[in-house]
Amino acid sequence: MELIRVDTKHAYKILREKITSLELKPGQALDIGRLANQLEIAQTSVKEALRLLAHDHLVEAPPRGLYVAELHLDDLKKISGIRLRLETYSAQEAAQHRTPDDLVILTSLCEKKAEDTRELFELDHKFHQAIAQAAHNNYLANTLEHFYGLSKRLWYLALPYLDFLPTAVESHIKLVEAIEEKEGEAAGEIMHTHISDFYQKIKRIITERDLMGSAG
Question: Where do the domains of the chain lie?
């Protein structure tokens, strides 16, 4: 987004967060003028930001109108399959290319405490970002961040019922140890299990509680 205007980037960032955190609901109509007034940003910038979000598959632009993209359970399967492979590869690459500074950041994130599930969720995100940065591959990091945005809406549906995150975060410590020892295969296996287990639990929560039915 280097060539995109600053105010468009600002609008994009705000709207992306509102969509991925479900503040703007799946299927909700988007009024450019109203959004521009709320954000105190020019309509042109909001329109450009929504065009970028449509490219990210977070906004839909049918023949008439703009809407927040709908959520479907099948999306979880498709996204999880991609993230499973990319995150595993990211952990393997981090084990090969990490620097002492990367290890300091990862260790620090493992030691941080969260007050609630939402904070714990965001801490987990920062940890995965740090793994991608430790791989020293910007293309990989940017791709993972894109799929994180797509996943986040599905996770936020289940957020009130996530009672397993503290245990999931504990696996970060073992992952950092493998990365520090440059054990790429072990790091990949730990990450693979971490991602796979998480998605299976998310799917079970969404299905058992019929959360897709209330997503709109």
Answer: 6-68, 73-214
Q: Say which CATH topology domain 6-68 has.
A: Arc Repressor Mutant, subunit A (1.10.10)
Per-residue pLDDT of 68-103, as tens digits, reads: 999 988 988 999 999 999 999 999 999 999 999 999
The Cα–Cα gap between 5 and 19 comes to 21
CATH T-level assignment (fold) for domain 73-214? Four Helix Bundle (Hemerythrin (Met), subunit A) (1.20.120)
**Tokens encoding 174:** 């073992």
DSSP string, 94-137: HHHH--HHHHHHHHHHHH---SSHHHHHHHHHHHHHHHHHHTT-
| One-letter identity of residue 103 | L
Q: Please, are residues 187 and 95 in contact by the beta-carbon 8 Å criterion?
A: yes
- Contacts with 175 (C-beta within 8 Å, 6 or more apart), sequence order: 91, 131, 187, 190, 191, 194
- Report whether 61 contacts 13 (CB < 8 A): no
DSSP state letter for 112: -
Rounded CA separation 106/180 (Å): 10
pLDDT of residue 216 exceeding 90: no
